[in-house]
Amino acid sequence: MFEVIFLPEGKRVTVPEGTTLMAAAIKGEVDIATICGGKSFCGKCLVEVIEGELSPITDVELKRIPPEKVKKGYRFACQAQVKGNVTIRVPDQSRVGRQRLVIMGKEPPIKIRSNVEKVYLEMDPPTLHDTVADDIRLYAALGSKGILNARLDYRTGTKITEMLRTANWKSTAVVLGGKEVIGIEAGDTRKRSFGVAVDIGTTKLAVFIVDLIDGGIAFADGMMNPQIRFGEDVISRINYAAQGERELGDVQKTIINGINELIEKGLAETGIDRRELYELVAVGNTAMHHLFVGVDTKSLGLSPYPAGLGRAYDIKARDMEIAINQSGNVHVLPNIAGFVGADAIADALACRLHEKEKLTLLMDVGTNTEVMLGSRDGIWSCSTASGPAFEGAHIKNGMRAASGAVEKVRIADDEVSCKTIDDDKARGICGSGIIDALAEMLKCGALDTSGKLVEGHKGVRVTPAGKEYVLVPKEETSSGKEDIVVSQDDVREIQKAKAAMFGGYMTLMRKSGHPTTDLNEIIIAGAFGNYIDPASARILGMIPEVPLDRISFTGNTAGSGARICLKSLDMRREATEVADKMKYIELAAEPVFMEEYINAMYMPNSRLNMFPETVETIKAPKVVRVYVSK
Amino acid sequence: MFEVIFLPEGKRVTVPEGTTLMAAAIKGEVDIATICGGKSFCGKCLVEVIEGELSPITDVELKRIPPEKVKKGYRFACQAQVKGNVTIRVPDQSRVGRQRLVIMGKEPPIKIRSNVEKVYLEMDPPTLHDTVADDIRLYAALGSKGILNARLDYRTGTKITEMLRTANWKSTAVVLGGKEVIGIEAGDTRKRSFGVAVDIGTTKLAVFIVDLIDGGIAFADGMMNPQIRFGEDVISRINYAAQGERELGDVQKTIINGINELIEKGLAETGIDRRELYELVAVGNTAMHHLFVGVDTKSLGLSPYPAGLGRAYDIKARDMEIAINQSGNVHVLPNIAGFVGADAIADALACRLHEKEKLTLLMDVGTNTEVMLGSRDGIWSCSTASGPAFEGAHIKNGMRAASGAVEKVRIADDEVSCKTIDDDKARGICGSGIIDALAEMLKCGALDTSGKLVEGHKGVRVTPAGKEYVLVPKEETSSGKEDIVVSQDDVREIQKAKAAMFGGYMTLMRKSGHPTTDLNEIIIAGAFGNYIDPASARILGMIPEVPLDRISFTGNTAGSGARICLKSLDMRREATEVADKMKYIELAAEPVFMEEYINAMYMPNSRLNMFPETVETIKAPKVVRVYVSK
Q: Looking at CA atoms only, how far is residue A157 from chain B in angstroms?
């Protein structure tokens, strides 16, 4: 066994010989970024070796780490194995860190009809001539209030004798779903009732404590999904969990610990008692849902990607070690298939997609983008691998939406002006920034519609690594050492991402039989969407051309959907109805998707007639070639 | 911290200063007998101090331990506190030990209709064009077999993806109560289905593994109830558990460990897989039921002794850490009140008391005797503290039914002949032996009907401690040192015990409004009953005088009742019906009981006309005084 010390925090971890630094970091809960999940191709886990013996540097490291850094002893944490006691420094760039998390989303007004009912009961204590058992006495009292078929939850049942006597036979029964007594509280507590709504995003975790009496949000907070330790993308986490029951348990425990931590914080801030949290409603994409519930996810990672659990479920909080009332209920919304999961249902519910009179496109943009197209007449859905480019991965100067990220770009008369988050000196570009940048470059002619940087245009320069467009000169950056640029490869990444989204939309449109002109409205959900300029997104052809006033950004509606389902049983019923009605299209099985994907690689699209207004604003050379599958 | 070594087993236990030897023994699971639960009045926990320092001998020890033993260093384990490292020898007499346990009982024929349904399903695997979730696919397959509303249990749900694929989509679903899927097994396993029936007696624990297909008993075994470590009587255990949640947990864990141990043994002997045990049905008196389920029992120990849980309950096996299928179900039968618990319901069911055309008396004889009087027209019940005299406690030479216990006594021409268990040399008298002895002594005139030993009668001798009757002269005993006798005090103990039983019966009879002549049949249940001579019991007036051919001994029908409820949902329904219909009489609230108790102190009774046949057989002086309450 050897000791690994991580600087600057000074965390010490003891591991057997041969353990990778990444595994040691996971064990010690040291924050090291990884996107590829330890497959050495993302290059985000670069660490500096201060002293100690590690396995020899690998070919892949020699190829990917700049020679001057190799000389200084830099290694990839996922490659270097411990061979003795070592001291490691984790540079800031290799950390996931804190970032701007959008956890709020638009919530429709609903009538509260929660699953939690509180009934105040006054009972006569037993006497020698009335020795009726405590539970039967309780059921009789509940019966007199119209609750006829409730039964005590096991844990609550074991405490009944003490609870009724402590309360001096004046108590409030907490009844779940009209059928299960999950609490007996002293006195009249009918005014206090709380629940928890959770949105488990691949990247972020949002937790809300909701007042089930007035519907208000008592507490809201978010954190990075701590499962990021097992890989930034879903497939890395599925692969980690697929190694065995223990590993699956690790991944599950990690997210539950994260949720419990936020709940703990909420209780401390609000003075609510843990036992007053009677229910928790969770949503997430199918993989996040399964890893939260603890469902074996091997099959989710393999074609044809069916969900293990498709229906809504109620699970005892104590079975999952969720830190609410241990007799309480964890409700998970239904999943559809592939990545169209409970979060998509939540989005649809919160955005009332199933009530729209006219055809509406709802996209929840993330590493996987869920695309739903429909109205009250029916909903088609698919999931498309838009990739992490919008979150800054695979982008030369990409970064998440954190301080110093370029989030808005305007190019006027070939002069670039950038706005950064928190108005810090620029450190990189986040998703909304790169969308703006590309749209502006198209408009000014620095980029052609096929995605080629136009040589000779002001700002475009040629380097040995290829063409790039300078957004922020180095003297204006935080490091002061390197320009922040959009590279030709970056453009390709964004083209692929937006083509995936638009291809998904068009496939659904064609499946639905509607002409594209039927589309009336676009709703963009997801943490990322809030900061996108809709005009820029339209210019890129991420979304179809509808009037700007019919494009809305609703934020984290997955969280909103979780909250309304927590507050209303009617919403849960609707969730099941939406799930039952939603038609799922597996894009891998649709040749049409490839055709639409290729056409959507052009900006806005090779079918220029679909973007008549946009085309007017683009100065760039219009290089297009329409592809039609046989 | 000091070390206590228990000889001869050599068990070492480390405890803080001031710990009693009894507490150290409990911690080390060393078998030391206690009846009083550490209150120093039973004198069963005598141990020999080999070396080491203990707290000074107490007054109560000086009074109760013979001086020669005090000199040799004998102490009561419940009194002596550790003051240094000590070595203790636990003599055989101070151990609970192994003993004859009657675990079988009469079982009525029933139609099997178990709660466990196995359904063989062949499903189509998902394809890119059929991405229906695994659970919905399963529900559809179940629906095609007529099971429409089943839902996956949480733990089973987390394994569904793996289970269906391992089974290559040909699997057997295990459905509980038509509504919960608790297993998905590879292939067609419809022929294998098992459950566990458990009878938790105050003294003994019986476990049966039952084949739910053919109804056969695959395994049956018993052990002493390991809770005996917390006191032989129920009140001692309730008092121990009442100290706090941890102590209640200790007592619960102890009985569950005992059950799990027997299950383990059964699995090893039968080759059944633990996951094939889908259900467990448990019965016990109210206190045993509550301590098993983990219900706070403080109120059970206090007048008016109401049960905490009166209804039947279904509890997840994993919630109770019962070692059957973790998704399986633990079903506990309903309780009535006081000590009339799930075991009494089980007795009534197994003996079909609720179907009798004529008035029948059913008594389950134990430390507490449950008395039920009734027919298909209704059942009255009560519980009476018959005490542990029939189990050998409070009897000078009393012992449990183990090798060497006198179990049959005949006195002919004033010559005593005794039969011992296993025909060993006599070590003491067990319950059936003492009943026989008193009946024979009455018949031969050595005892009068008021319970006085008749001075001058052959075999009756006067000692400084009082009169006694010699059953086995010392030269015929195993020790060879002391005669085995029935003392005047022993007679009193038996009088009190049988008066309690008969008083209970008469109270019910009077409450029911029936004349005593309506009684048609007597059923004696309980481990102890099997060996009683009904004629002797009748002579003593333990039971009323009905023809001997209408007196039956059914053994452990509590266990039988558990088995039939395991095998049949109809029986569970009947159990609830019986519980709902059974009228409970709390004897503490009935002045009539005291009157009947006093009259029943006479043998057979002060109302001699109630025992016309018996009276004919008694040579003893008929000393009676009828007591009538005002």
A: 7
Question: H or E segment at A330?
Answer: strand A329-332
Spatial separation of the C-alpha atoms in residues B500 and B551, rounded to whole Å: 19
Q: Which of A76, A6, A93, A28 is nearest to A479 (CA)?
A: A93
Q: Which of A86-100, A308-322, A444-458, B424-438 has the lowest mean pLDDT?
A: A86-100
Cβ–Cβ of B295/A157 closer than 8 Å?
A: yes
B382: closest chain A residue by CA: A131
Q: Which of A131, A297, A320 sits opposite B305 (nearest CB)?
A: A131
Mutate to test the interface with B, among A131, A149, A339 (most CBs of B within 10 A): A131
A169 interfaces chain B, CB cutoff of 8 Å: no
Buried b (16+ CB within 10 A) or exposed e, A260-283: bbbbeebbeeeebeebbbbbbbbb
Q: Is A313 on the interface with B (CB under 8 A)?
A: yes
Q: Which of residues 566-585 of B touch A (CB under 8 A)?
A: 584
pLDDT at A202: 87
Nearest CB to A131; choose among B158, B306, B316: B306
Residue A232 confidence (pLDDT) above 80: no
As a whole number, mean pLDDT of residues A151-175 equals 97
Q: Is the CB of B445 inside 8 Å of chain A's CB atoms?
A: no
β-pair partners for B244: none
pLDDT attached to residue A267: 94
pLDDT < 50 stretches in chain B: 98-100
Q: Using alpha carbons, list the distances in angstroms from residue B514 to A328, B360, B582.
A: 50, 11, 16
- Name the residue among B131, B297, B306 with its Cβ closest to that of A132: B306
C-beta separation of A369 from A501 below 8 A: yes
Q: Is the pLDDT assigned to residue A523 strictly greater than 50?
A: yes
The pLDDT tens digits for A176-193 are 999 999 999 999 999 999
Taken in order A19, A20, A22, A25, the sign of the CA dihedral is: positive
Q: Would you call B313 and A151 a contact, using CB atoms and an 8 Å cutoff? A: yes
Q: Model's pTM, two decimal places?
A: 0.82
B539 neighbors B612 (Cβ within 8 angstroms) = no
Whether residue A550 contacts residue A535, with contact meaning beta carbons closer than 8 Å, is answered with: no
**Over the stretch A575-612, which tens digit does the pLDDT of each residue have?**
999 999 999 999 988 999 999 999 999 999 999 999 99
- pLDDT at residue A481 in the model: 84
Q: Are A283 and A289 in contact (CB under 8 A)?
A: yes
Which residue of chain B has the CA closest to A589? B128
Task: Please give the torsion angle defined by the CA atoms of residues A204, A205, A211 and A215, in that order, rounded to the nearest 10 degrees.
Answer: 40
- Which one of A128, A158, A335 has the shortest CB-CB distance to B133? A335
The pLDDT score that the predictor gives to residue B39 is 66
Of A589, A530, A518, the residue nearest A554 (C-alpha): A530
All structural domains of chain B: 2-94 (3.10.20.30), 116-186 (3.10.20.880), 344-387+495-617 (3.30.420), 389-489 (no CATH)
> Would you say residue A99 has pLDDT above 60?
no
Residues of A in contact with B159 (CB under 8 A): 296
